[in-house]
User: Fold this.
Amino acid sequence: MAVRRRILNTLLGATALFAAATGHVYADTLEEGFSSPPMEVRPRVRWWWPGADVTDEEVRRELHLLADNGFAGAEVQAMTPNFVALSRAERDRVNQYAEPMFFDRLKAAGEAAKSLGMSLDYTLGSAWPPGGGFAITPEKALSELSMAVTQVKGGEQGPIKVTIPKWTRRLGALSFFDERTKDPKVADWAARLDARARIVAVVAMKGSAPETIAAQSSSGFKLSPWSNVRVPGELDPASGIVLTDKIAADGTLQWSPPPGDWQVFVFKQYAVDMGVLGAAGQGPQLVLDPTDPDAFRRHAARTGDPLGIDPAGIRSTFIDSFELMQDIHWGPEFLDQFRKRRGYDLTPYLPFILQPGWMQAWDERYSPPYFNAKSGDLADRVRADYRRTLSESLMTGFVKPFVDWNHSHGMLAKLQAHGGPFDIIQAYGSADIPETEDLVHGADPLFMRLARSAAHLYGRKHVSVEGLAWGGRPFDVTPDDMRRRVDLIIAGGVTDIIMHGMNYRYKAEDWPGWHAFSPNPSGLSFSSMLNETNPIWPAMKPLAHYVARLQSVMQSGDAIVPVAYYYGRYGYYVGIEDGGAGKQAAEKTFIAGGYDFDRINPDSIARARVEDRQLVAAGGARYSVLVLPPISAMRAETAEAIARFAKAGLPVFFTDHIPDRDEGLADAARRDKRVRRAIDMAMKAGAKMVSADNVVPSLRQAGVAANLTFGGDASDLVFVQRNVGDRLVTFLANVGTSARDVNLTLPRVGGVTRWNAIDGSIAPYSASASGNATQVPLNLPAGQSALLVLDSREAPHRVDDPATQESMTLPVDGWNLNVQGHAMRKPYAHDLGTIALGDWRNVPELANFAGEGTYRRTVAIDGQLLGRGRKLFLELGEVHDMATVTLNGRTLPPAITRPFRIDITGVAKPGNNDLIVTVANVLENAMVDPKSPSYKSLRPVPAGLVGPLRIVAQ
Assistant:
């Protein structure tokens, strides 16, 4: 009974924590939450720690700094500070990660966060992928399957010689340069890793070899032995012979091949030559086997159990992206698991599973498979079964144990599922907080919808993102870049932004201090260094307020998503559905047609129902229509569910053609009949097949209500929409390079206001009723966004845009400039006297400068410009990269993003005005160093106040 009570209390505690973490505490009204966002809706930062080499005092100081600048907390990720000179004592402290010293610091951080009303997320493991330490022994480490093929002409007496697959060298599971691998306790680990190697299967089949071309790695590293395939080889499955027991270690095969052209395959299992990337901690850093729940148990015992139950101030633990570098995804028990789950032996069909680029970490891409069957679809069926089994093995071996462990410890589970070779939507949805990231495909809001889809389907309130990360731009990302990226993220359906990132203050004497992803000789670097040492740090508070205001709205009410768009594949990368073209044609067509969409997976279809002709997911999301992409196969159970949906009145559309078979191989004939029978039933019940270019017109014809309709060129406009009581909230972002002038039709009648997340203001917006809808004209410059709120309790009305009545342009010359900061990474201060506005790169004293430049001048303003009832604005023109204006002794809010326009109404006066413009630029120019192996790739970027400056009266 005591055990039951403890379990019940744990579950109740986790439920209570979930309620707090998912933002069920809001301001009284939408307006109040927007004006003064509560803690629950504020953004967070990823907070990199140098392992355990942190102090309670500095941790508390940095948490106060975050709280003072508008953040709700941080995501702690402990890492080794690579490419930084560390003393022996420092390295020893760094490697106390996951030891008592580290957990003392983490608990103190959690308590400090709690005292400030904040909370922390904690990466369950140092860096990524999960693993490391003495807990993950060679027997519990990640394994892979590799393949070698030998072409053999039959008809001669054996034995024959065949090629044995080689072990793929990667980033080093036991690096010679890592002194932790020299610990006497692991002296036998290299031999134990070698002992994992074994020949899994030898299979011979008649057939032809593939035509291949060299693969160009997008990452700059060759992490896989596979070439791209131009034309797959063709094999005759009926000729297949399993010869595993006839091979010797040297490749001698005791077999006499019958006449014909044969392909002889040798499949060998190896431990993967990959360690946890950037990991701190004791011992070697082997990646765990995610198909083995005992490997996760060991990992959690090392990296999480010492936190105890319901640790103060720690909201969740977190798993970073799955970046599993394997020749072929595999696990030691995979063949047994496959036989149990699919009902047949995979061994004779192993030649068909390899498809280069499929979920290949750091180099995901489309290539045809190496081999297909000579006739029929057997190879496609085998690959589907292989991937389904792999997905299930990862879900039961890692994802479910991870979620269960968090709940049993009073915490939420936060998971990045992208990059994993599984049902990505199910994996996202299994976590309490699905988290996407914006590095993928240039912050693609269509990709980010995968995590949002999972949240809707599985009933998760929040969608998180590892955001504001740019590859190859560690020091030059501007506040304007960040604001634009925030808009993309919000337009991707995200509700919670984790800004990437803030470094614990470390090695500060070597300005600008430690950055976890600084440029280095390996060539890999990422943004952003969101620290006090970055001159643009003052922009973080207004940027955090901007994010918080948007999130206060996006965490309110319910998302409006009319289209459920089927996704039945395993893993995801842009291009997986269209042969690598990456056009995302269907997704873009939906958005351009005014229909938002979620992707829906077979697991969610199995648990959904139809009510009032709407598809209702187990998580509560409601969809007006189910659309399927051009696919030839699906599980029989999925087809039968769709037939039931159609019979219950749900509109169902198949694109281009209908599925006519089951996806798997076992019992194929019977299951194929079930699919065909179910699809026939669906069509008779009203389901339709339409061409891809006719999907949106067909939705309209079927009476499926759109979120909105666009009049005019709406290309590059992306939107999300929410229902909040009597309000219809629509957020639109222009992700293109040209302005868009459109007329929106919103499907309700009401008054419209435009909410400005930069300053928290709300202003009436011009709109007019049109039948049962509201017409809203919108001009959206490139890179800009609009948050429109329609209130059905109010009437639409026309609002005239303010007209410029008068303006004056300030002189380019005659400014006094004083700078303080760093040049060539050394402290630098200089009074340049009188100077003209312009790019600092053209000023010899400032070409290598990063910091603050203070411009001063006296500005004479004609009294007529300050006429009664007029608003007065100072337009700064071109600014690099943020500006703070002080006028007549009054400092105004910083301008951090275009159009760099500041309201000076009531501050300006007739006659002479004392104007100070303090400009801060990014770190880049001070870091450029052609002689440094780390910094030689950096290039100077625009800096300073270029202008022209204007004072505008409206």
